[in-house]
Write a structure and sequence with these properties.
Elements: H1 7-12, E1 29-36, H2 40-51, E2 56-59, H3 68-71, H4 83-86, H5 92-97, H6 107-120, E3 127-128, E4 133-139, E5 144-149, E6 154-162, E7 184-187, E8 202-206, H7 210-222, E9 225-230, E10 237-238, H8 246-254, H9 256-265, H10 284-296, H11 301-304, H12 314-331, H13 335-341, E11 355-356, H14 359-362, E12 368-372, E13 378-382, E14 385-388, E15 392-394, E16 397-400, H15 409-412, E17 415-417, H16 424-427, E18 446-447, H17 459-480, E19 485-487, H18 489-504, H19 537-549, E20 555-557
Residues 167, 173-175, 188, 206-212, 231-232, 352, 373, 401-404, 514, 520-521 line the site of ligand NA7.
Length: 558
């Protein structure tokens, strides 16, 4: 079977008929709030807004709920934050009912979880799947958002909640000849629902980020030959996954309040938060012991729970980077391959650290080859495979684990226009600017859970928190008789500047990745910008909660 790899294919998979048919010419159907996206952000928003009595309609292009967890069904896709820190916290009953089978659940279980949640809280009746929003224009006269779906049906809502997700718009690589490949081709974030076999096949994977790593680990098990095309080597650390035992299950369910407190008070909404000591406060032996412990423990502790200065002080960062480099050399038998897998151009943790299960050992298998694209770049994809500057790799299947047009890509995919017809893309041409990562001046009643410059990390936590905050804002508006809010430009400038200032103190700011808004597959996106708030979830929460306490002084209100 041949699957083309253009954007049409990406779009093709789930765009069949929508469930509600309406003549393009008739009046739009009106709601209080229109929500785009049935991931954690959309579900959280729907729950909160319905509780406030708002009539809501949620549109989702996928065939079911889950957002990124609906689409990312590639082999081996799983959480790398603990399952019980990733699921919803809004209901203690839900938390205690749902029993995650693994500490880091795989995609099928996560998809089941999202379906369970929407049925458990009777949300499905307000959700419309296989419905892609094409346009959302603010109608100044009506003080409402006019929304058009891909099939031409029209809706109107006082609020527009764009829960489109920071990592949802798949990005194909910009490589000459990509459309010519004659074998099977897949993008990890648009993996088909039907089974895909690697047995007896020569498979190529392009990309070694979090998705690539999980895919590679799986494909290597059965492919006749796997060729990994790596552009930038990343530092990886063990995931430490395993089944949740009955005893652990009981403990997890009894710890709802404690886990909730932990994720909410940590730096990036994870169960792990930085150790408050400096790396230089401890002896060499103690530091080595600490690193060893974190490396062998479950989850992201080696990254998110390390000494406080590893991401700000270059000397501190060198120590942990050197530790991980040693681990790679120990685990990969061929020294030349090990050197290719060791990052040379950035320090540990300054880009996303993928968490792995025997990833490095894959390169000890005879059926796996690593191609270092920094040394020998891909020159062209041809019908039979991939040509690099050095050699030709004949392939039956190509997997693009090339990530996303992160943070702003999913907004750009919709024609969003605010006051006076201003396009959101135009406003953000030099990078996004927002107030608290959720609203932007000139776009009234437009809300972005986990939007650009929000405090990210464990994204469902950001989403849940942002949905709570939106409910507080609407509750306030209801009490005051308001129907219009828009952040004051100076509030937005202040927040954006604060995010910029915080980022400049981090080593991350010196490194290209989606964390710093770099996307080499798109024209004009090769210089770094500020796209996330990195001051810590606790500071973010303080700022958001101060706004609630003070009656939202940073808004223009009508
Ligand atoms: P990532 O982390 O953005 O990784 C994409 C990978 O694809 C990365 O290794 C890229 O190399 C590589 N890539 C992208 N374009 C090309 C081209 N043109 N040629 C060769 N290699 C390329 O995406 P993921 O899906 O793995 O993960 C994204 C996030 O989703 C992840 O952090 C989780 O939080 C969930 P590069 O590094 O750009 O050199």
């Amino acid at each position: 079977m041949t699957t083309s790899t253009g954007d049409e294919t990406i779009d093709m998979i789930e765009t069949q008929t929508t469930t509600i048919k309406q003549q393009q010419s008739s009046a739009p159907i009106e709601y209080d709030a229109i929500i785009i996206g049935a991931g954690a952000g959309g579900i959280s928003a729907l729950l909160h807004l319905r509780d406030l009595g708002l009539r809501c309609r949620l549109f989702e292009s996928g065939g079911g709920p889950g957002g990124a967890w609906y689409w990312n069904r590639y082999p081996g896709a799983r959480f790398d934050s603990e399952s019980y820190s990733y699921g919803f916290f809004f209901s203690k009953e839900l938390f205690q009912e749902w029993k995650w089978s693994e500490h880091f659940a795989g995609q099928p279980e996560t998809e089941r979880y999202f379906n369970y949640v929407i049925d458990r809280f009777d949300l499905r009746r307000d959700m419309q799947f296989k419905s892609r929003v094409d346009k959302a224009h603010f109608n100044d006269e009506k003080n409402a958002w006019d929304v058009t779906l891909a099939d031409g049906t029209r809706y109107r809502g006082r609020w527009l909640v764009a829960a489109v997700g920071p990592l949802t718009k798949p990005q194909l690589p910009k490589i000459d000849g990509i459309e010519s490949f004659a074998g099977e081709a897949y993008h990890t974030a648009r993996w088909p629902k039907h089974p895909v076999s690697f047995e007896g096949k020569r498979v190529g994977v392009i990309g070694t980020g979090a998705s690539g790593v999980q895919t590679i680990q799986e494909v290597a098990k059965s492919a006749a030959h796997l060729t990994v095309f790596q552009r930038t080597a990343n530092y990886m650390a063990p995931l430490g996954n395993g089944p949740v035992t009955d005893e652990e299950q009981e403990q997890i369910q009894a710890s709802f309040e404690e886990l909730k407190r932990k994720v909410n008070s940590s730096y990036a909404w994870f169960l792990h938060t930085p150790d408050q000591r400096s790396i230089f406060d401890v002896s060499d032996e103690e530091r080595e012991r600490f690193f060893e412990e974190k490396y062998n423990a479950r989850g992201m502790g080696i990254w998110q729970g390390n000494f406080r200065d590893i991401l700000t002080d270059r000397r501190a960062n060198d120590l942990i980077s050197d530790f991980i480099r040693r681990k790679i050399r120990e685990r990969v038998k061929d020294p030349e391959t090990a050197e290719k897998l060791i990052p040379k151009d950035h320090g540990f943790g300054t880009r996303r650290v993928p968490h792995e299960t025997n990833y490095y050992e894959v390169y000890n298998q005879p059926n796996v080859t690593l191609v270092d694209l920094k040394a020998t770049p891909i020159t062209r994809i041809v019908p039979q495979g991939v040509q690099t500057s050095e050699s030709f790799h004949e392939l039956d299947m190509l997997i693009y684990a090339t990530g996303f047009d992160a943070i702003t890509g999913a907004f750009e995919a919709i024609d969003i226009r605010g006051l006076g017809g201003q396009k959101l893309d135009d406003k953000w041409i030099d990078g996004p600017s927002t107030y608290l990562g959720v609203m932007t001046a000139g776009f009234p009643n437009f809300y972005m859970p986990a939007g650009p410059l929000s405090a990210q990390g464990n994204i469902p936590r950001t989403c849940e928190y942002n949905a709570w905050w939106l409910a507080e804002l609407i509750r306030y508006m209801q009490a005051e008789g308001l129907t219009y809010v828009e952040p004051k430009p100076e509030a937005e400038e202040e927040w954006t500047e604060h995010a910029r200032q915080v980022q400049s103190t981090l080593l991350t700011s010196e490194v290209d990745s989606w964390f710093t808004g770099v996307n080499r597959n798109r024209e004009g996106r090769t210089s770094r910008r500020v796209v996330q708030y990195r001051g810590g979830a606790f500071i973010y929460r303080e700022k958001c909660e101060a706004a609630v306490r003070n009656g939202f002084p940073e808004f223009i209100k009508k």
